[in-house]
TrEMBL record:
This is Uncharacterized protein.
């Protein structure tokens, strides 16, 4: 499924490659860096950060702020990620991507909690999601998780996983052949 961000990412990558001076605009770099984070493509985000000219990163605090979020994601520091997201007053069009990124990180975090814990403290969920206690309790109800009577412990349930798609032996052989070919070249 191709999303609007996937299309925008392809356009921004093309803009970077076809930039007349070999250097894209700060807006292009900022949006592309934010989209890589949204896609959870931390390797490409890191490579992009390294190839952005230093005069652009030093003169554009928004790009530096986006990379601060990327660094927290790289280190799997969820609490720090939410702090970095809230620490900057994002401008359009990056603000839309950052809002979507924050929602996606929370969604992944709730799925991770559901798959990983049978019991977890409310305070831990607050820290892991960057939400207030009331917002976490509301999200727990939305996910159909039970909150113990003490109001301190949550019993999450695993998210519903879609059934595995059946892949034919021919498709599997084709994918394996492509992979081996890739490794050899």
């Amino acid at each position: 499924m191709i999303t609007n961000f996937d299309k925008l990412c392809a356009e921004l990558e093309k803009q970077e490659l076809e930039a007349p001076t070999g250097v894209a605009s700060p807006s292009t770099y900022g949006q592309l860096l934010a989209i890589y984070l949204y896609q959870n493509d931390l390797c490409n985000a890191k490579f992009l950060w390294k190839r952005i000219p230093q005069n652009i990163t030093s003169s554009n605090p928004e790009i530096t702020a986006i990379w601060a979020v990327g660094q927290k994601l790289w280190k799997k520091d969820l609490a720090g990620t939410y702090q970095a997201l809230a620490a900057y007053n994002w401008t359009e069009p990056v603000a839309n991507i950052i809002r979507a990124l924050e929602e996606k990180i929370r969604e992944r975090t709730f799925n991770l909690i559901g798959r990983s814990y049978s019991s977890i403290s409310l305070d831990t969920v607050v820290t892991m999601t960057g939400l207030s206690r009331d917002a976490v309790l509301h999200a727990c109800r939305d996910h159909k998780w039970t909150v113990n009577e003490d109001g301190v412990t949550i019993n999450p349930t695993p998210p519903v996983q879609p059934g595995p798609l059946h892949t034919s032996s021919e498709d599997q052989l084709f994918k394996l052949t492509e992979f081996v070919s890739f490794l050899e070249n």
